[in-house]
Amino acid sequence: MLKDFKKIQFKMPQKFSVWHIIIAFGFFILLQMYLMNPGVRDVSYSDFKKMLQEGKILECHITNTMIRGKLRETERGTTRNAVFITARVDDPELVKDLELMGVKYAGNYESPWLKTLFFSWIMPLLILFVIWRFIFRRYGPASSIMTFGKSKGRLYAQEDLNVTFDDVAGIDEAKEELQEIIEFLKTPEKFRALGGKIPKGVLLVGAPGTGKTLLAKAVAGEAGVPFFNMSGSEFVEMFVGVGAARVRDLFNQADQKAPCIIFIDELDALGKARGINPMGGHDEREQTLNQLLVEMDGFDSNKGVIIMGATNRPEMLDSALLRPGRFDRQVVVDRPDLHGREAILKVHAKEVKMEKDVNLHSVAAMTPGFVGADLANLINEAALLAARRNKKAVGMPEFEEAIDRLMAGLEKKKRLMNKKEKEIVAHHESGHALVACSVPHADPVRKISMIPRGIGALGYTLQKPTEDRYLLTKAELLDRIAILLGGRVSEQIIFNEISTGAQNDLEKATEIAKLMVKEYGMSDKMGVVTFEQGDRPLFLGGGFAASKEYSEETAREIDLEIKKILDESFHRVKALLTEKKEILQGMAKTLMEKEVIEGDELRKLLDELHKANGKTQPS
Ligand code: ADP
Ligand code: ZN
Q1: Is 527 a residue whose pLDDT tops 80?
Q2: What are the sequence ranges of the domains in the chain?
Q3: How far is the CA of 506 from the centre of ligand 2 (A)?
C-alpha cells in the first residue's frame, strides 16, 4: 500500500481529554493539602499547653502561625512519637514553659522556597502544558500548523507501483519517445560520462483518460525509480506562500531520492499563463509557479530527477514553463485508434473471464473516440452486467449493452461524432493532406487522423518539417495557406456546403497573409514596406494596443491585398481539388475505415489512387 506519511505521523496513541486535566488538577490539590497540612494530630492550644505541662512534648518547631512538634506517647508499653500541630496563640509564657520542661524548640522561619517554586511556577506551567497539548491534539494537530508547508507529495515505493509498459497499450509512439528517459534513469552514470544532455522536464499532452498518469508510472516502474505524484491543483492553496513551500519541499524530497520521477498532474492548474487576467492576477498561483521555475532551473538534471507534467490544455500554459531547460520536451498522448483500442482492451480483459466468442477487435471497432479510461470502464461494466445475469463469463451481449450505456454518457460529455460529421471530418482532413501532397513546397504529411484531439479539433493533419526553417520564401508561405484552406475547400466541393470546423484554419491562413503583406513586404502592390513595428503588444494578439502608423487609405489597401492573397489561394486550391476529386474521395473513404493514416501508408495510397484514376502525381 502506498504510505501516507501524514497519517502515520499522527497515529501516536495519546488520548487527552478534559478528564485527564481534571484528575491531574485534583491530584495537585490533594498533594498541596497534604504538604501544607500533614494532618497528623490537630490539637487545641489548651490541650497543647496541658501536654506540655504533663511533659509529653518531645520537641517543637514554632512558626508565626503554628506550632508543630513531636509528642512522646506511651501506648501499651511502646513509645511512639506522634506528630501534632496546633495553631499558635499569642502566649508570652510559651518560651518560659518550654524551657522549664526542657523541650527542644526551634523557631521556624519557614523557608518555603521549594514549595513556592513548585506551586507558583512548576505546577502552573505543568497545567498549561497539559492544556496546550490537549488543545493541539484536538483542534489543530501539528498537521495544519507545524507542517503547513510540507509537501503532500507522497512517495510511492517502487514495489507498490508495479506498473510497467506492458500495462500501457495503444500509445506506442509516446512509449517510444519515453524510452530514452528510462535508459537515463536506469544508468545516469552512463549518460553523465558521455556528457549527454537529458531533458529535465517532459510534458505529456493528451485528453483526460488517455493514460498520462499511467504512462508516467510505467516509466518509473520500468526504470525502477521512486515516483512522486502530485496534482497541480494541490499546490494552489488558500494561503499565499504555502504552494511555493510545497514545491520547495517536494523538490527537496526528490533530491534525496534521486534518481526519481516527479509527476505533476493538471499542470495547467498551476501553470496558467500569467497576465491573461490583468485585472488582478492570482498571487498565490503565480508565486507557486515562480517557485517551480526556480526549482527546475536550479536542478542539476544530471542528478537523475525527471519532472513529468501532464495537461490536456498545453496552449494554456505559461510560455516560461516550455522554455529550454524546463518542459522542453513534449510527448503527445493521443486518443487510441482502432488497433490501440483493441490493445488496451486486451490489457484490461486479462482481469475478467470472457467467453470464447468475444471478439475484442469488433468491440474496438464499436468504440471510436473512447480513451483508455473509457475502455477500462467498459470492461468493468460488462463484467458487472455478466455478474448480474449470473453468467460465469462475460459475453458479447454484455459488451454491446455496456457500450450502449457508456456511449450515451459520452455523447453528452464529449460529443462523439455522428456519421455525417465523420464524413465531413474525413473529407476535411483529406483535403488538407491532399493539398499538402500536391503543392511543391510543403513539408511531408506525417499523419492524418480523425480522432478528436484537444478540445476544438475533430481531426488533424500533421506535417513533419524536414529541417528547421528560419527563412521562408513567398512560394512556401503561399503553399502553407493553400494547405490550410484545403480542408474548407474540400468540404465545399464534396458536400457543397461548409461547416464551422474550419474556423481555426481560416484564422491561421489570414494571419499568414497578413504577415506577408504587413511585415515581410511580399505584396506586389504595397511594395517592400513593413507596416508593423517588430514589437508585438504584450497581450496575445491584442490589436487594441498596436499603434497604427499608416493612413486609413493604406489600411484599406492592406486589407484588400490580404483578401487578394486569400482569394487567389482559394481558387488555386479549388482547381486542384476539383481535378483530384476522386482521389480526395478515395482518401476520405480509407480514413473513415482506418481513422488514422500514417505518412508512408498515405504515400502508398496516393500512388494507387493516382494510378487508378489515371492522374499524374507531382514528385
Ligand atoms: P490521464 O492521466 O491521462 O487522465 P490515467 O492515466 O489516469 O489517465 O488513466 C486512467 C485509467 O485508464 C488507467 O489507470 C488505466 O486503467 C486506464 N488506461 C488509460 N489509458 C490506458 C492505456 N493506454 N493502456 C491501458 N490502460 C489505460
Ligand atoms: Zn482543418
Answers
A1: no
A2: 18-107, 113-147, 154-332, 338-407, 419-612
A3: 8
